[in-house]
UniProtKB/TrEMBL annotation:
One of its GO terms (molecular function) is flavonol 3-sulfotransferase activity. Its EC number is 2.8.2.-. GO terms for cellular component: cytosol; nuclear membrane. PANTHER family: SULFOTRANSFERASE SULT. One of its GO terms (biological process) is 3'-phosphoadenosine 5'-phosphosulfate metabolic process. It comes from Jaculus jaculus. This is Sulfotransferase.
Length: 289
């Protein structure tokens, strides 16, 4: 059943209905002033997106509350069967556009690299991502049941989850950082000092970080606000697609929840595998906070 829904696509496991219209994605034409928000799923994409949208809308909360986040910042993807017609929405959007994607760097349309568009890569430690992804799986009705949590973690380690290996994904962008305009945002840093991270984003976007703007952003994008805001909490997606009665999209919003899910044995195995996978990487994550 699992591989009825997902398929290997150039070495990356993908949700089948998405790859069906791959041409639309691959041939997407970037504009010089497009901003890309890239991430592996469950890394804080929605949080970072709302921060960026607040900056683009100069702190106007009302403007951010006019539509759901997935319409204000669509995913660069194309499917026929549901409300996510990202490519179409993006083509109709006025500049400067914000383009959201979970594609690994090697699958991001060439046009973005050619035009050297700014990219914000949002990332989070692997263990918390695995936990968050597990609950997400339970909620997405089109996804097969992920099995028990230990079973899911096996799949995660083998890259047998949508968007493939977390290890490959984070490294795919990290390796490109020197030749492009990229900002890396770590979920753990955002939890620790959101002010500092918000200032970084504002500066990366070439704008002036006024105290007023920073304060507004921090208030509007707190976990509590975003959990209660229908424009950020995905409650406007029908239950038939995303069943939040199982678990809410805005679930816990903390670091270290993996400690409530990994047994000592699972953790040891994960660490061993992690060291192998990240052996040649200079990317450092904070898992113990
Ligand atoms: P948890 O499942 O651990 O709670 P993404 O947007 O990439 O799908 O990531 C979703 C994760 O980010 C969820 O993690 C969600 O709760 C968390 N998140 C979303 N908004 C947040 C915020 N404002 N502050 C902290 N965490 C947030």
């Amino acid at each position: 059943e699992y591989y009825d829904v997902f398929e290997d696509f150039h070495g990356v496991l993908m949700y089948k209905p998405f790859t069906k219209y791959w041409d639309e994605v691959e041939t997407f034409t970037a504009s010089l002033d497009d901003l890309v928000i890239a991430s592996y799923p469950k890394s804080g994409t929605t949080w970072a997106s709302e921060i960026v949208d607040m900056i683009y809308k100069e702190g106007d909360v009302e403007k951010c509350k006019q539509d759901a986040i997935y319409n204000r910042i669509p995913y660069l993807e194309c499917r026929e069967e549901n409300i996510f017609h990202g490519v179409k929405q993006l083509k109709e959007m006025k500049s400067p556009r914000i383009v959201k994607t979970h594609l690994p760097a090697q699958l991001l349309p060439e046009s973005f690299w050619e035009k050297n568009c700014k990219i914000i890569y949002v990332c989070r430690n692997a263990k918390d991502v695995a936990v968050s992804y597990y609950y997400f799986f339970l909620m997405i009705t089109a996804y097969p049941h992920p099995g028990s949590f230990p079973e899911f973690v096996e799949k995660f380690m083998q890259g047998q989850v949508p968007y493939g290996s977390w290890y490959d994904h984070v490294n795919s962008y990290w390796e490109k950082r020197k030749n492009s305009q990229m900002l890396f945002m770590f979920y753990e840093d955002m939890k620790e000092d959101i002010r500092k991270e918000v200032i970084k984003v504002i500066q990366f976007l070439g704008r002036k970080p006024s105290e007023e703007l920073i304060d507004k952003i921090i208030k509007h994008t707190s976990f509590k606000e975003m959990k209660n805001n229908p424009c950020t909490n995905y409650t406007t997606v029908p239950d038939e697609m995303m069943d939040q009665r199982v678990t809410p999209f805005m679930r816990k919003g903390i670091t270290g929840d993996w400690k409530n899910h990994f047994t000592v044995a699972m953790n040891e195995k994960f660490d061993m595998h992690y060291m192998q996978q990240m052996k040649t990487s200079t990317m450092k994550f904070r898992t113990e906070i």
